[in-house]
Structure formats: C-alpha cells, structure tokens
Amino acid sequence: MIQDRLTNTFSALADPTRRAILARLALGEASVNELVEPFSLSQPAISKHLKVLERAGLITRGRQAQWRPCKLEGAALKDVADWLEPYRRLWEERFDRLEEHLRMLQSEPAKSADRTASAEQVKSTRQTKVKGKRHD
Length: 136
Fold this sequence. Notes:
By secondary structure, the chain is mainly α. The protein has five helices and two strands.
C-alpha cells in the first residue's frame, strides 16, 4: 500500500520522541550522538526514529568526513501547515463568533434588567386596570 506524504508526515509526528528530535534540529544540525544525549534511549533506538523522520522527508542526513549531521527539512512541515490552514481559519472564525456571542451575553444582564423592569411596569399597569374595571 502506497501512503501519501502527508500520512507519512503525520505518522512521524505522532511520536513525542520524534517531535523532540525535530525541536532540537530546529535549533541547528546535530549528529546522532548529540541527539541521543537528552533521551534515555539507545543510539539504535534514536537511529530508528531518525529513519522514520527521514522517510517522511522531515530530516536529511549528510556526511562531512566522520560527522553525519541531521538537518531539519521544512518542506514536509509546510505541507502539514498548508493542509491545516483551512481548519485554522475555520476555528478562528468560530472563536471570533463565540467571543462576539459572549460579549453580547455579558451586555445582556443590563438589557435583561431593563426588560424585566418594563415587564413589571406593564404587569403592574394591567393589574391596576383590572382592579379599576367595574363589573356591573
């Protein structure tokens, strides 16, 4: 089964260790040994994570003499950002509408108090009129 790039990217991002590796690589290139340091994982375990990230196109590995730096590749992350953009706009619009609704509700007690006072005045007036009617 052939998986699309976005599926591979999300699959790679699903693991917290891989996300932490990407966060480290966002600061600059690093060797496998440098990437192993903050984790309580073996070098082979980190290497497996790196292979997943590499297959997803999130990192590349180079070679400079004895040093094999890993580098973050932003193109795959841009694909994710592009895919998420319509959803971000949707949620921002919904939050804006919610904020507007909450503002309306917060101003509502003053309006509600005015309506209650008006309703009580109407009720009082009706009661006065009813009491004042003659039943002959």
